[in-house]
């Protein structure tokens, strides 16, 4: 600003302060930055501001509410704000849907426009987890899903029964001699072994009690044990780091609060020794290397005649060009790994909760034992048909346990076009999450929802007849629902039949009540399910 002396005098007389050019430009820059930051922080909220929800803090959003109420926060908010409401995971608003009919609308009727999943910050930091079926999108997802579906034919699942049965038998020998045991640890090893065999064709040998008296085999077993244990430890580390709250690595936390900074910070932090980001990155790199190695070796083997999931995908992929283009080595590794991940934690959690709940309900146990005993001699292995039709009460027990403890209480989806749900217009890119856990505890569909009552799923029960068909959907809804549903139900039923033919279970004296849970991508136990097995005569 170049002002003559007279002009300066004149301005000062009117009390107008003089502002130098650098001050103006600095002020302007600060204001622009502030506006940009506010726009960045509030833009996602602005798009869905008409959806009701509690007031949220800048950056933190509703995370303090999550800390206060734990996962019950969604049931609490549904009561206050209705079946469609906003919950801000840091900066990111989620539109939560907590009504079975609206969930059907999102999952099936409007699937065309809500077919992808949103990618939460822990996954955004993990390329390994992003390339599985769960997070792939659009055409790549449908091609991958169709190829994988061909592997899930009922006839193929039926062929897996003897394999599953042999793992279950080996893992559950002499449980009575163990006294108080952490059943959830055993069931995680068992489920990992079963899926390891089914997915990779590899026996991890985690759940078998170690014989260890043949010295010739001992060395190679020990070597194998170390490698397998290492692989599994890395798998568990990589999985448990996928936290949804504020306990993950620094870049993951940043991803919740200011997503734009997540990737640059991850790139820097992964190079700094001692950071959690570095450890997560190295673990994921190691796992990726190992998985790629397994896949590359299997691809080289000329005869792909084994029945494991990996070989079947490789074969299915060979027969179709589109599938070959999409299913590159890194995606095959990721999908196979995803099976290990999705198939072990969920199934083992469910088996452990069933054992926990049945042990605390003697009247349920009595009815279950009767059904299992009446099926036939104890060494008669059930067929796929038996499992489907001849254990109706077991069916009810499993459904009720999965309702009671919904292992995956939230299902993540994202709109790919503007869409109207429950009267609210949601723009393209809105994160829409189905609150399966809230549906499962809604007294409108489940009388006394906090009671464990398998009979509520009896087809002749009035409550069952009147209930909305999607009120209990632990495996999700529509074309994007769990691909491993039949696999895990088969494994759960075989395990339950075998276990209750041999044992009943009682809670250990140090088993906390109620069960305490940890909330990651799926539910887990804080301390585990502790029981004592009593041998049946
Ligand atoms: C008790 C056991 C299990 C439960 C409760 C469970 C639950 C779920 C849920 C809720 C979803 C999201 C569905 C949706 O968006 O509507 C899902 C997806 C998925 N599950 Fe499972 N799951 C279980 C076992 C398994 C097993 C054994 C496997 C593999 C063998 C598996 C593989 C998958 C995959 C790959 C997806 C992603 C599907 C897609 O996006 O197309 N799950 N699961």
Taking pLDDT < 50 over at least 5 consecutive residues as the criterion, the unreliable ranges are 213-220
Cα gyration radius (Å): 27 Å
Count of individual helical segments: 24
Overall average pLDDT: 85
Helix content: 40-55%
Query: Strand pairing plus helix content: what structural class?
Result: alpha+beta
Can you list the ligands bound to this structure? protoporphyrin IX containing FE
Strand content: 5-15%
Distance between the amino and carboxyl termini = 99 Å
- Principal-axis shape equals globular
The biggest beta sheet reads: 4 strands, mixed
* Strands, total number: 11
| Neighbour order of strands in the largest sheet | 1-2-7-4
Transmembrane segments: 21-42
Keywords: Heme, Iron, Membrane, Metal-binding, Monooxygenase, Oxidoreductase, Transmembrane, Transmembrane helix
Family: Belongs to the cytochrome P450 family.
Cofactor: heme
